[in-house]
């Protein structure tokens, strides 16, 4: 059972999604489509923790127009999706430099909506920033 969990939602899902997002960036997708926006869950599937590490890869090596992290900050939006851990949220917030690309989500049916909402309510943020996370950022991005 542990092997199955590590291959799936406990670890593997997140790593595979992070690698896929890096392949989208490194494949030059955002250079060809600079206005394209992605939404990924689980506080960025671990990517924000590696922003500084990704910054050491020279642009001459990637052949991209900008550093990798620029794309992850300007073409990607991040949801909670069940990673309701204050330190993880604070890292995401610090790495992104603000609330504009963070959106509320729940990891239903793996997590209860009540847990997701309780996490949103206890964030160290102003009422207006919580409103942006709760709905404003998604409304802006998705033109709702």
Structure commentary:
The chain has 144 residues and is mostly helical. The protein has a single domain, classed as TIM Barrel (Alpha-Beta Barrel). The protein is built from nine helices and three strands, in the order αααβαααβαβαα. The chain has a three-stranded parallel β-sheet. α7 links the parallel β2 and β3. The longest helix has 16 residues. The chain is globular, with a radius of gyration of 16 Å. The termini are far apart. 24% of the residues are buried. The mean pLDDT is 96.
How do the helices and strands line up, and which of them pair or pack?
Blueprint: H1 2-7, H2 12-26, H3 29-32, E1 38-40, H4 51-54, H5 59-62, H6 68-74, E2 76-79, H7 86-96, E3 102-103, H8 113-121, H9 127-142
Parallel strand pairs: 1-2, 2-3
Q: Provide the structure class.
A: mainly alpha
- Low-confidence sequence ranges: none
| Approximate strand percentage | 5-15%
Number of strands: 3
Please summarize what this structure is.
With 144 residues, the protein is mostly helical.
Task: Give a quick set of tags describing it.
single chain; 144 residues; mainly alpha; TIM Barrel; three-stranded parallel β-sheet; 9 helices; 53% helix; globular
């Amino acid at each position: 059972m542990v092997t199955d969990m590590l291959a799936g939602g406990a670890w593997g899902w997140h790593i595979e999604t992070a690698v896929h997002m890096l392949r989208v960036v490194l494949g030059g997708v955002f250079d060809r489509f600079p206005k394209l926006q992605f939404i990924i869950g689980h506080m960025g599937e671990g990517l924000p923790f590696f922003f500084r590490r990704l910054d050491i890869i020279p642009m001459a090596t990637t052949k991209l127009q900008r550093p990798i992290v620029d794309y992850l900050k300007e073409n990607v939006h991040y949801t909670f999706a069940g990673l309701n851990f204050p330190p993880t949220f604070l890292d995401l917030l610090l790495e992104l430099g603000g609330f504009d690309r963070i959106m509320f989500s729940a990891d239903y049916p793996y997590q209860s909506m009540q847990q997701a909402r309780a996490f949103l309510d206890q964030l160290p943020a102003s009422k207006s920033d919580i409103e942006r996370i709760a709905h404003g950022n998604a409304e802006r991005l998705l033109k709702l």
